[in-house]
Specification:
CATH class of the largest domain: Alpha Beta
Shape: globular
Order of helices and strands: EEEEEEEHEHHEEHEEHEHEEEEEH
Number of strands: 18
Helix content: 10-25%
Structural class: alpha/beta
Oligomer: single chain
Number of domains: 2
Length: 302
């Protein structure tokens, strides 16, 4: 559901690739089930646009609907929390709802076989739970080679300098194989960075617990305090689950806390090279606000 009233006026850019990944898109395809907007602009104008939003949705077989009072719908979601919904074309009120959080969403968005992106001598294994392309670009830009592997790949046995657990959709507890492999990698003291879903997977591998948020954190304006400092960062987030900080073991600490609701936004081990951020450092609502997290991880690589 898009809250901004006018959607589509910028159009969609082309499929140009840089370093083997899409330059203008964060994934290889659209991963939403449907798009709901208020007012759709059939005419678009942007120097990089090559097609309309409608054409792009049709290419990917994604249904879209406009003429909906999305602000009213947003108020309902704000008051009731995250709700199941469905776009239907008849007046039959007897609708079966599928809860996506009960399914293995990560298996739908993860790659099926390993892919390598060459840069420098240091190599990071990126566990693809639905990774954003800009995460790959962030490490290639730091001269770090990437081996991108499926979510159920036995990455704990991989020869590498570090492991990156990516973002992704759904309930983290469903990803039992990824959690198990993360736990094995931790036993080897391999440097690990978790981003978004990866933060939750790392916490679960360390014995902590996660839970579902009523509303979730969505948007580019989530304030996060870095614990032990007087710094607050505006972060980009899109997640519906969080780590229960009260369940962290004694040798783990909270790194960041959400200033809106006090929930956990990052964690680290006090003596081993394990780090995690619940937000997206690569999204950079400002110039490069929290990309220092990548730099800390790079310095920790073997």
């Amino acid at each position: 559901v898009c809250t901004y009233p006018l959607i589509g006026n910028y159009g969609i850019p082309d499929n140009e690739r840089t370093n083997g990944v899409y330059k203008n898109f964060e994934s290889e395809s659209i991963h939403i089930r449907a798009l709901i907007i208020s007012d759709y602009s059939t005419e678009y104008s942007h120097w990089s646009a090559t097609r309309s939003l409608g054409d792009w949705l049709q290419e990917n077989k994604i249904p879209g609907i406009y003429g909906i009072d999305t602000r009213m719908l947003t108020r309902k979601l704000r008051d009731k929390g995250t709700m199941l919904g469905k776009v239907i074309i008849d007046e039959n009120p007897d609708v079966d709802f599928e809860d996506p959080n009960m399914t293995d969403l990560v298996s739908e968005v993860s790659i099926k076989k390993p892919v390598e992106y060459k840069a420098g001598k240091k190599k990071v294994v990126l566990v693809d739970c639905g990774t954003k392309n800009n995460i790959i670009q962030a490490f290639l830009g730091r001269n770090i080679s990437i081996k991108r592997v499926p979510y159920n790949y036995d990455f704990a046995c991989e020869s590498c300098d570090g492991i990156l657990l990516s973002n992704g959709p759904g309930d983290p507890k469903i990803n039992k194989k990824t959690i198990e492999n993360a736990r094995k990698a931790m036993e080897k003291n391999t440097p690990i960075l978790g981003i978004c879903l990866g933060s939750q997977i790392l916490a679960l591998a360390a014995g902590a617990d996660t839970y579902k948020l009523k509303y979730g954190h969505r948007g580019h304006n989530q304030p996060c305090n870095e614990m032990g400092t007087k710094r607050c960062y505006i972060t980009s987030q899109n997640h519906g689950y969080a780590v229960n900080a009260d369940t962290l073991a004694e040798d783990w600490r909270q790194w960041f806390v959400n200033d809106n609701d006090g929930t956990n936004e990052g964690l680290f081990h006090i003596s081993k090279p394990f780090f995690a951020a619940q937000f997206h450092p690569e999204a950079s609502p400002g110039p490069d606000d929290t990309e220092f997290i990548f730099d800390i991880f790079v310095r920790a690589l073997k």
